[in-house]
Amino acid sequence: MGRFIQIVEVGPRDGLQNEKAVLEPAVRADLVRRLESAGAKRIEAVSFVHPKYVPQMAGAEEVMAALPHEAGRSRIGLVLNGKGYDRALATGVDEVNVSVAATDGFGLKNQGLAVKDQLTMLGEIVARRHNAEASEGAPSLSAMISCVWGCPFDGEVSVDQVADMVGAIAEMGVGEIGLADTIGAGDPWAVTRKVEAAKAVAPHAALRLHFHDTRNTGLANAYAGVEAGINVLDASVGGIGGCPFAPGATGN
Fold first, then answer.
1. How many domains is the chain built from?
2. Span 196-220, average pLDDT
3. Which residues, in sequence order, are CB contacts of 133 under 8 Å at separation 6+?
4. pLDDT (0 to 100) of residue 100
């Protein structure tokens, strides 16, 4: 193919959030450092979610405190709402990735918000980011749409649903938009269709793909995405991962 494909390492966040064992922040910070030593440049290091719901991600502030800023490295924090964004800003993460769902069912289960309300929430965060003073050192912003290839609660997700959501997010000015196969329901043909639809409505946005290998199609889907012009893929060390709100989903 002859072009560079960027890998976003999500093991410290997506990889660990579904594990039975809860690792201490110091151990998770050490994992980030080891991944960087292995060559990872962009790492989703933490998730600013309530520890009641995802105890594996408790202590995100402690993880970031153990990771002083380094040139050429980007540590990403995942957030689900404005409160999470506040926490992320306080830690000095390099990037904030805002999670939104393509369906009402998953959005209500994961964040307590239907699609319309999730977009409102994202718009408020985008406005805060755009209005931030340069001296504040606001992190770059991306959005990750979950359940693009199927929802554990609402079932099939149409191409039009995905295109409408990508278009709405692109209009807000979000520079990178991720498409996630949260339950691993996609296949290469469906990947191609939805990537092409997303590119059509957001020609100036960078698109990023996030797959789960539930049906052993993760690698084939990633290849299909690259063939369709995608240059950024998520991956997790050791293939670990899953979602607490998507029963049965396996690793990245």
1. 1
2. 97
3. none
4. 99
> Is 203 part of any domain?
yes
Give the domain range for residue 92.
6-239
Tell me the CATH number at 31: 3.20.20.70
User: What is the rounded CA–CA span in Å between residue 193 and residue 215?
Assistant: 19
Known catalytic residues?
Answer: 243
Does pTM surpass 0.85? yes
Does 245 fall in a domain?
no
